[in-house]
Design a protein that fits this description.
Distance between the termini of chain B: 42 Å
Largest sheet of chain B: none
Order of helices and strands of chain A: HHHH
Low-confidence stretches of chain A: none
CATH superfamily of the largest domain in chain B: RNA polymerase sigma factor, region 2, helix turn helix motif
Largest interface: A-B, 24 and 42 residues
Oligomer: heterodimer
Number of domains of chain A: 1
Largest sheet of chain A: none
CATH class of the largest domain in chain B: Mainly Alpha
Structural class of chain A: mainly alpha
Mean pLDDT of chain B: 86
Order of helices and strands of chain B: HHHHHHHH
Helix content of chain A: over 70%
Number of strands of chain A: 0
Number of helices of chain A: 4
Radius of gyration of chain A: 31 Å
Number of strands of chain B: 0
Helix content of chain B: over 70%
Shape of chain A: elongated
Mean pLDDT of chain A: 76
Low-confidence stretches of chain B: 102-108
Number of domains of chain B: 2
Shape of chain B: elongated
Number of helices of chain B: 8
CATH topology of the largest domain in chain B: Rna Polymerase Sigma Factor, Chain: A
Strand content of chain A: under 5%
């Protein structure tokens, strides 16, 4: 046997072992068994509620933006009306909520 | 294409704890991992299944530590190698030699039994490098990553193991 086998020799040894080495029998229940050994999938209720809340906040935000663009025009002079103030607060709150969710997601997974 | 799909599955498991994606990963890699343990244990299929199962459970818990610096299968083999080392620490090193199937059981040919026995003549590390390099087609660099040894050490293990197997098979009438 050579100290530094050539690629061809390596291939011969590899083919010989692959052909003649013992092979594992099929076990169709293997994956099933492994999956049963895993811990139960946990969903935090708080996290799910927060995600649903954020989703609705974003939908509301989009609706409000659409509504504003259809029914209001930005006043020429800088006087903010009560309606506009409410809309600004709603948008700011939604943005804050989404930002918090994104930060939580990044902190959890990265 | 398969690698892209595999990366997607890994990401799904990492980010969303997707059990279906994990089951697909187990399905894709179980044959190779079970074959690896089969050569390490000398053919004890029940032990093979237990060790392979332990490997995938460890993978589940440590998948977030996978950074993608090496191939996913290399990472998985490394877990399998560590699982087998832990098993050896818990059991006597001679235990596995008893597991070589006898002639006339489930083994179809004498040559297969002789090769299984030749593999059992090797040390654990030699058997690992032979299995990974020649049977599982891993490059020497990947084998070095799996067993966490320098490249030169892996090459010398490989050389010594090849010679030992050659001598064993020659002594048993093969040329």
């Amino acid at each position: 046997m050579n100290n530094h086998p050539t690629t061809q020799e390596e291939k011969v040894v590899s083919d010989f072992l692959k052909k003649n080495a013992i092979t594992a029998g099929e076990n169709k229940w293997f994956t099933h068994r492994v999956m049963h050994q895993l811990p139960p999938a946990h969903t935090t209720p708080g996290r799910s509620i927060m995600a649903i809340f954020t989703f609705f906040a974003v939908v509301m935000c989009c609706f409000v933006l659409w509504y504003v663009s259809q029914h209001f025009s930005i006043p020429r002079e800088n006087n903010i009306t009560a309606d506009l103030l409410c809309i600004y607060i709603a948008i700011m709150s939604s943005v804050l909520l989404v930002t918090l969710q994104v930060i939580r997601f990044i902190k959890t997974y990265f | 294409m398969r690698h892209t799909n595999e990366k997607l599955l890994i990401a799904q498991v990492m980010l969303f704890d997707d059990r279906r994606a994990f089951a697909t990963l187990v399905e894709q890699h179980q044959t190779a991992i079970r074959r690896f343990f089969l050569h390490q244990t000398g053919g004890n299929e029940m032990l093979v299944d237990d060790l392979a199962q332990e490997t995938f459970i460890k993978l589940y818990y440590s998948i977030k530590q996978y950074k993608g610096l090496s191939g996913f299968s290399t990472y998985l083999y490394r877990i399998a190698y560590n699982v087998f080392q832990d098993y050896l620490r818990r059991h006597k090193p001679t235990d596995d030699i008893e597991n070589i199937p006898d002639k006339g059981t489930s083994m179809p040919s004498d040559l297969k039994i002789d090769i299984a026995q030749a593999l059992q003549q090797l040390t654990h590390i030699e058997r690992t490098v032979i299995t990974l390099h020649y049977i599982e087609d891993r490059k020497i660099e990947e084998v070095a990553q799996i067993v966490q040894a320098p490249l030169g050490t892996v090459k010398s293990h490989l050389h010594r193991a090849r010679n030992k197997m050659y001598e064993y098979l020659k002594a048993n009438g093969y040329e």
